[in-house]
Design brief:
The chain is built from eight helices and ten strands. With about 250 residues, it is an alpha/beta fold. The chain binds S-adenosyl-L-homocysteine.
Length: about 250
């Protein structure tokens, strides 16, 4: 039996940001295993599939990752069409490659389908170009949350000259600010904090490096949110389609 598991990105929230390939995989799915950050609205594309919530808030307290691995393997070995659906892109801070490697070691092929990652969607929906000629020559996606609580090389990041897009940073704003300031970044560096990117409840808080934590508190910024740190966060031109989205 040549069973395959689909590792699919559900995008940042807006169901219209699903790829056609993701929709095709969902259409064929018999089992769909979803994370917390997946917008349930995307499940309209798999009305007859069995939906299994395996997010951290989904009831898997002990060794959740091992449990997810075993569940995928069990259904795949039963010959079921399994879709592992993850928020954003499955391989951007999504453990997608870990799951694919584990399945591969157990003889199961995996096909990965990209999703639009939250950092891209959030910036675009706020009119922020992550790269900009003469302003930002690149973009760095970084997580503020590390498994072993080790510190990032903030100095290298501060001096990279790239736009920084920080995931999982809401609880770490003070560390991020202190690290970047110590690394030589200007306290005036523009920052955009974008909550629930691409969803109707999207909110955006503009600030600067030195004041971002206070501003986030006053704004009651909540997860999921991404931070865009860099000169590009000064831009305010609406280059995207939020008006169409939320009309
Ligand atoms: N694989 C996902 C990221 C998962 S890590 C992706 O590619 O987008 C989880 C973090 O992603 C959250 O803590 C938050 O920083 C970010 N995130 C996910 N969805 C988001 C959204 N709709 N708006 C803002 N940030 C989001």
């Amino acid at each position: 039996m040549n069973t395959k598991v689909w590792l699919v990105g559900a995008g940042p929230g807006d169901p219209e940001l699903l790829t056609l390939k993701a929709v095709k995989a969902l259409n064929q799915a018999e089992i769909v295993m979803i994370d917390d950050l997946v917008n349930p609205a995307v499940l309209e594309h798999c009305p007859s599939a069995r939906i299994i919530s395996v997010g951290k808030r989904g009831g898997c307290r002990s060794t959740p990752q091992a449990f997810i691995h075993r569940l995928m393997l069990r259904y795949a070995r039963q010959g079921k069409c399994v879709v592992r659906l993850k928020g954003g892109d499955p391989c951007i801070f999504g453990r997608g490659s870990e799951e694919a490697d584990w399945l591969g070691e157990h003889g199961i092929d995996v096909e990965t389908v990209n999703g639009i990652t939250a950092g891209l969607a959030g910036a675009t929906n706020c009119g922020i170009p992550l790269t900009l000629r003469g302003v930002a020559r690149g973009v760095t996606l970084v997580t503020a949350h590390t498994q072993d609580d080790s510190s990032l090389n903030w100095t290298a990041l501060a001096q990279s000259g790239t736009t920084l897009v920080v995931y999982m940073g809401v609880a770490k704003l003070a560390d991020i600010r202190d690290g970047l300031l110590a690394g030589g970044m200007s306290d005036e560096m523009p920052v955009a904090m974008i909550e629930n990117a691409s969803l109707p409840e999207q909110r955006e808080c503009r600030s600067h490096l030195a004041t971002m934590q206070d501003d986030a508190m006053a704004f009651a910024l909540k997860s999921p949110a991404i931070l865009v740190i860099g000169e590009v966060a000064r831009a305010s031109t609406q280059i995207s389609m939020p008006l169409l989205l939320h009309a």
